[in-house]
Amino acid sequence: MLGIVDVQPTFMPGGELAVADGDAVVPVINRLLSGPFAHAFATQDWHPPGHSSFASSHSGRKPFETIQMPYGPQTLWPDHGIQGSPNAALHRDLTQARIELIVRKGFHQEIDSYSAFFENDRTTTTGLHGWLQARGVRRIFLAGLATDYCVAYSAEDAVRLGYQVFVIEDACRGIGLPVVGGGTTIDAAKRMLAAEGVTFLGSGQIA
């Protein structure tokens, strides 16, 4: 099963929370959807205006600062993925015929949601796990945006739930914020996921 994470214009060049080269994932994902994957699900960031994860909702705060929320540390973001806006839609060039489920996340005002499986309290579910279980899915291949946030959180939770998880590197792009001690959030996410047993591979390796 292919999981397509947040392939939305809001995360692409010209969008509110642009990931460098983010639009380059679309043709790679389309090739996967036209070949090895007959079944897929997708996620959408789907925030109400004034969402608690937006820096604009906190006086004196700037994007990419971190604050404490009741569920733990929360990175503050530029306003993005606003419900019903054109930039919150799945990318218009994404081939959707094989996408059987769209999971909308981050729609609760007071809690953010990176993972396709859980909101950021790490306990409130999206329902995706039950949907996959009902279909007998045991292996998940993840693609989309961003490698170091929504893809990484989705991969981590999928492993925790017992799936065999693969991240298709050339079908992903990351934000790459600097981290203490050197490197970026992409590097840190890859190290963490590899330690959890996630396999990184290229789209050309999938038969």
UniProtKB/TrEMBL annotation:
One of its GO terms (biological process) is pyridine nucleotide biosynthetic process. InterPro entries: Isochorismatase-like_dom, Isochorismatase-like_sf, Isochorismatase_Nicotinamidase. Pathway: Cofactor biosynthesis; nicotinate biosynthesis; nicotinate from nicotinamide: step 1/1. The keyword Mitochondrion does not apply. GO terms for molecular function: metal ion binding; nicotinamidase activity. Residues 4-174 form the Isochorismatase-like domain. Its EC number is 3.5.1.19. CDD domains: nicotinamidase. Belongs to the isochorismatase family. PANTHER family: LD05707P, PYRAZINAMIDASE/NICOTINAMIDASE. This is Nicotinamidase. It comes from Siccirubricoccus deserti. The lineage of its organism: Bacteria, Pseudomonadati, Pseudomonadota, Alphaproteobacteria, Acetobacterales. The gene is pncA.
